[in-house]
Amino acid sequence: MSDTPRRAASRRRSSPAAPMGQARYRVMLGLVLIGLALLAGRIVDLNVFDRTFLQGQGDARTLRVDPIPAHRGMITDRHGEPLAISTPVVTLWANPQDLPDDGIQRLRLAQALGQDPDALNARIERYADHEFMYLQRRMTPVAAQEVLDLHIPGVHKRAEYKRYYPAGEVDAQLIGVTNIDDHGQEGLELAYQSYLSGEPGQRRVLKDRRGRLVRDLEVLKEAEPGGDLTLALDQRLQYMAYRELKSAVEENDADGGVLVTLDARTGEVLAMANQPSYNPNNRAGLDPSGLRNRAIVDVFEPGSVMKPLAMSALLETGKFPPDTVVDTSPGWMVIDGYTIKDVINHGKLTLAGILEHSSNIGMSKLTLQLDEPVVPQRYRALGFDSAPGTGFPGEASGEVPSPRVWSSSQWAALSYGYGLSVSALQLASAYTAIANHGERLPPSLLRLNRPPAGEPVIDPDVADRVLDMMDQVVEPDTASRRAEVPGYTVAGKTGTVRKSGDGGYEKNAYRALFVGIAPVSDPRLITVVMIDHPRGDSYYGGSVAAPVFSRVTGKALRILDVPPDNLGDDS
Fold this sequence. Notes:
The chain folds into two domains: about 65-205 and about 215-230, Penicillin-binding protein 2a (Domain 2), CATH 3.90.1310.10; about 235-280 and about 290-570, DD-peptidase/beta-lactamase superfamily (Beta-lactamase). It has 21 helices and 19 strands. It is α+β, with helices and mostly antiparallel strands. The chain has helices at about 5-15, 15-50, 50-60, 105-115, 115-125, 140-150, 170-175, 185-190, 195, 235-250, 295, 305-315, 350-355, 360-365, 375-380, 410-415, 425-430, 430-435, 460-475, 540-545, 545-560, and strands at about 65-70, 75, 80-95, 135-140, 155-165, 200-205, 215-220, 230, 255-265, 270-275, 325, 330-335, 340, 350, 440, 455, 490-500, 505-520, 525-530.
C-alpha cells in the first residue's frame, strides 16, 4: 500500500514532460522536412533551371577540341619516284604544373628523353607558370612510347608528321625543306606550301582535369590531306648529273657549280644539280648559303656561250651572207679605251669559224657594223631580263642593260657575253629556240601533260643555221672536242668568263661554262654546265665544263633510249 502513493506522485511529476518531448520531435521532424524540401528544390533548380549553365561549365573543364593533323602531300619525280614524303611521328609535351617534383622521376624522364637532367629541370622551372611546354618534338613512335610507359604525371603526346627526303643532298636545293611544324621554308616546299599542306581537321574529346584523354567523342571536321606534286625531274638523270657535277667540282678544286638539263621538246627540267649541297634530313651545323638553288636564283656574266644567240640576231639582219669572212687580225682591238682581244690571232674567219674559235674580235666587228642594238633586243626576246616564270621562290630575272645612248664598247661586250647577267636556267631556256627552229619554250619544273606552245623569237632558217654552226664547234680537232658524245652528234659552245670583284675583274678567277644540244639531227636534250672558279690545271670551259656535259648527256640519252645518230663516226 505504501508504494502506491509514490507511483502516483511520480506520474504526476512526469506528465508535463511528455508534451514537451513530442514538441521537440515535431520541431526536428519539421526541420528535416524543410531541409529535404530545400535540397529537393536545389536539385530541381540545378537540373532544370541551371542545367545549361552547369553543363557548359562542366564541358569547359572536360571537353576539348583537338586538331587532327593533315598529311602533307608527296613530291615525286616524273615517274612517281618519291622525293619528299611525310612519316608519322610523336611529339611529347607536358603541363609543368602537373609534373612531379620528385627528383628521381624527373631524372628518369630526362634519361628517357636523352636530355641533360639539369637542362630539363631548368626548362620546367622556366615554364612553371604555364600549362604547356614541349618535351621533345617529332620522336619516333617507339621512342615516344618508351617515355609514356614511365607513366609520369603531366606527360602527354601529340600525333604529328615529319618530312623525309629519300634522295638527300641530290636534289635538296630544288625540293627545299620544311620547318619543325612541317611548313615549307625553301624551294618547292615553300612555293607550293598551300597546295601540299592540306587542311587540318578537328575532333571533340573528353579529358580529365589533368588533360589526359578519356574518350574520343566525335570528329567535327575531317583532315584534308595535301595534294601530291609531280615534278618534271627524272630522278635517274638527276642522280647521274649530281654525281658528275660533284666529281668535277672536287677534281678542279672549284668553289661550286650548277647543271641544268632541259627536255628540248617541252622545256621541262629533267635535271638540276647544285654544288655545294646539303643533307635535308640532317641540318645540324648547316650553312644557310647551301640552301640556295644557284641554278635559278644566282646570276653571272655568261661570256662566250652567248655568242650563238648573238649570232642569230646578226644573221637576221640580212647584212651577213653565208660566205662572209671577218679579218680578226692582229687578235686585239681598242674600243672606247677598252682593249678587246682573242686568245690568239685567228686571222680571217668565216661566221662558223668565229663561233668555233670563240673570237671576241669577230663578234665585235660584226656587231659594230650595225646601227641598231639588235643583240640586246634578241637577248630580251629570249627571256633574259625577265623571270623564267617557274614559280620558284627568288628566281632571278637577270639583267640586260638598256642605256639611252649605246656606246660601241657596250655593243661589242654584249656580243661576246659580257655586260649582262643571266641564270643557268635562263640560259638553258634560251637555247630551246635554237633547238626548236626558232621557238623558245618556257621552262617548267612540273611535269607537263602536253608540250607548251612555243614563242617564235628567231627566224626558223636562222635558228637551223646557228645549230649547224654549233655542230661544227664540237669536232675532234676543236677546243670543244671533250664535249663529244660517242654515237651522237652534238652542237655546243664553250665559255670561259673572268669573275668580277669589288675592284673590277679578277686576274685569276674564272667560270668555266658549256652549253650543248644533242642529238643535232633531232634535238632532245639541252644541258648547261657551269663550274665556279676552278683551281686545277685548267680553267677553260672546253677542258672543265665540256667533259661534264659529255658524260651527263651521253648517259642521259641512253637512259631515255634516244636512237644514236652518229654511229658511223663512232670508233
